[in-house]
Amino acid sequence: MPQQGEALIHLVGKAHDTENASNPEEYFQVNTELTKQVFDRFLQSEIRDFIFFSSVKAVADTVEGVLLEKQEPDPKTPYGQSKLKAEEYLLAQNLPEDKRLFILRPCMIHGPGNKGNLNMLYKLVEKGIPWPLAAFENRRSFLSIDNLCFFLNKIITSEKASSGIYNLADDDALSTNELIRIIANASGKKPRLWKINQSLIKNFAGIGDKIKLPLNSERLKKLTENYIVSNHKIKQEFSIENLPVSAKEGLTKTIESFKEK
């Protein structure tokens, strides 16, 4: 690890497994123990800023209302718990006066080359397959890679930014139904939204847990839950009124990149 520089951005981590097939201990080995080692080396270096990418899942798996930084953490998964353990270690260390610690909690990050549920939704719309979960009314926050880089640039170039925990999200939360419309518009398709009974869908997802179908309970939760994240604290810290890219613009850019493959 370099001993000099302005910032060390710690991005290494084991991502959340929607199929629940990973050994829980692996999350703690990578997300917690590795972070401890990197931070200890940082304290011995001349680098000014340590920027740790945690996650909103270190706080809550389900959000009632809007997620704020002051909410008491209560993660339920090994992924979230391992991220929280890393946060607790960082905050417990004696930080020299000439160093700063930024714990960033991003919501779902997306951009060109994205993998995961957005790709699955894109393929579904592209093939003209109806969206069968339109009966679930939800709103969730996203974070475009452009806005993420904007936040990072603000942190690194600011001489007055305060150490602390900051949520990262786009300005607006969108429903999955709105997301389907954005994908359809970017793909030149007509959005097809089917409102199938919620109980029937949940029972089908339960079957998916047992026989490894594309739709299981974990994926259903991710696609239909409310998960609104406030970005007010970091915007206030840097006197930001509006982020450079809107949620719809960012998602459209990501979806359009899929067509190039």
Number of strands: 8
The overall average pLDDT, rounded, is: 93
Order of neighbouring strands in the sheet with most strands:
1-2-4-7
Under CATH at level 1, the class of the domain at 112-140 and 171-227 and 239-261 stands as: Alpha Beta
Oligomer: single chain
Structural class: alpha/beta
User: Segments where pLDDT lies below 50 for 5+ residues?
Assistant: none
**Distance N terminus to C terminus?**
35 Å
Largest sheet: 4 strands, parallel
Anisotropy-based shape: globular
CATH topology of the domain at 112-140 and 171-227 and 239-261: UDP-galactose 4-epimerase, domain 1
Percent of residues in beta strands? 5-15%
CATH architecture of the domain at 112-140 and 171-227 and 239-261: Alpha-Beta Complex
Work out the helix count: 9
N to C succession of SSEs = EHEEHEEHEHEHHHEHH
Describe this structure as you would to a colleague.
The structure is a single chain. The chain has 261 residues and is an alpha/beta fold. It has a domain at 112-140 and 171-227 and 239-261: UDP-galactose 4-epimerase, domain 1, CATH 3.90.25. The chain has helices at residues 24-44, 78-92, 117-126, 145-157, 176-187, 198-211, 217-224, 232-237, 247-258, and strands spanning 7-10, 49-53, 66-67, 100-106, 108-110, 142-144, 164-168, 228-229. The strands form 3 sheets. Strands 1-2-4-7 form a 4-stranded parallel sheet, sandwiched between helices. A two-stranded parallel sheet has the order 3-8.
